[in-house]
Amino acid sequence: MSEAGGGKLAEILAKKRAAREKAREEDNVSISRNASSNVDQNESEDDERRSLSHTSGSYEHSERSRTGGFVNMSLSQVEDLTRVAQGGLGILYQGIWRGTVVAVKKPVDPRVANDPALKEDFRREVEILSEIRHPNVVLLMGACLQGTGLCIVLEWCQGGSLYDVLHRRRVDMNNHQRVKIARGVACGLAFLHTASPAIIHRDLKTQNILLDETLSAPKLCDFGLAIRLSDSYVTNAQAGTPSYMAPELYRGEACSLASDVYAFGIVLSEIFSQELPFAALELSEIREKEGDGGWEAGGL
Ligand SMILES: Nc1ncnc2c1ncn2[C@@H]1O[C@H](COP(=O)(O)OP(=O)(O)O)[C@@H](O)[C@H]1O
Ligand SMILES: [Mg+2]
């Protein structure tokens, strides 16, 4: 961190310390324990009051194994928000939360706080991420699912996305580094697929793989389309990003773990060739080749 950044951080920390002391005096930090699936029920005016409460999984044994829980926080607790990237669903900011540099994902359009479908994507992302603890999956630190302060707070991944590293910054990596990244992605994906019930990411691509500052420890992110492979979630709605979508998805068939494995194959080819997948083709051509007849030998 730069000296200026360090000074600023010290100032923020001092402010935070004072606020903490005050809060301790007033003893107003409440700890509530609700199932995360119920978080939405109490949308309300007292968002702010509850901003320091902890929402976690039910303590009944059977539920506990499935519900990780997350820290229910308020966007107003994050300081120094700086916009750094934009994806399909959210704008990504860097900020400082309780003295720690974090990534904050907010909806692209603040009005979507009132859009049930988009809210559901955010809720699903939080719910699924809160159940996963793995070195190759981005760490969910907190979230706010109420009101207009809708946000997801994640660990900050200094290296940015694998897409940026490969295609924008065009970092010249050796094969050892590339293998390490590929292996990390495989480990993260295997961890999702061996969950019970299994989790299908459905949008695996280099934009959704983050890296640390050494560019060697990848972390899967963006679980907005992720689903569990259980009866209630089986879907054949087309979802994902065209270049990474398996042929069966173009044919309207249900997604499966294999659809993620297909996307992983595309990611592998991207890691080792450092070329954009299907760069020479138009979207319609990708659809045509994938959906109708599959690829001819050597097509990839
Ligand atoms: N934790 C993070 N640390 C650093 N950059 C991140 C982090 N999370 C996301 N990003 C950046 O923000 C972009 C968009 O985030 P993502 O979660 O994929 O949102 P969307 O659902 O809108 O695609 C990513 O491609 C990446 O460049
Ligand atoms: Mg994304």
Can you give a write-up of this model?
Keywords: ATP-binding, Kinase, Nucleotide-binding, Transferase. The chain is an alpha+beta fold and 300 residues long. It has two domains: 71-155, 2-Layer Sandwich (Phosphorylase Kinase, domain 1); 160-292, Transferase(Phosphotransferase), domain 1, CATH 1.10.510.10. It has eight helices and twelve strands. Helix 5 packs antiparallel against helix 7. The protein is globular, with a radius of gyration of 21 Å. Bound molecules: adenosine-5'-diphosphate and magnesium ion.
- What is the overall pLDDT average? 77
Please state the second-level CATH architecture of the largest domain: Orthogonal Bundle
Q: How many beta-strand runs?
A: 12
Residues in helices, as a percent range: 25-40%
Bound molecule types: adenosine-5'-diphosphate, magnesium ion
Instruction: Report the β-strand fraction as a percent range.
Output: 15-25%
Question: Which sequence of strands runs across the widest sheet?
Answer: 3-4-5-7-6
How many domains? 2
Biased composition (Polar residues): 29-41
Protein name: Protein kinase domain-containing protein
Domain Protein kinase: 78-300
GO molecular function, one term: protein serine/threonine kinase activity
Top keywords for this entry?
single chain; 300 residues; alpha+beta; Phosphorylase Kinase, domain 1; Transferase(Phosphotransferase), domain 1; 2 domains; five-stranded antiparallel β-sheet; 12 strands; 33% helix; 17% strand; globular; disordered N terminus; binds adenosine-5'-diphosphate; binds magnesium ion; transferase; Protein kinase domain-containing protein; Kinase-like_dom_sf; Ser-Thr/Tyr_kinase_cat_dom
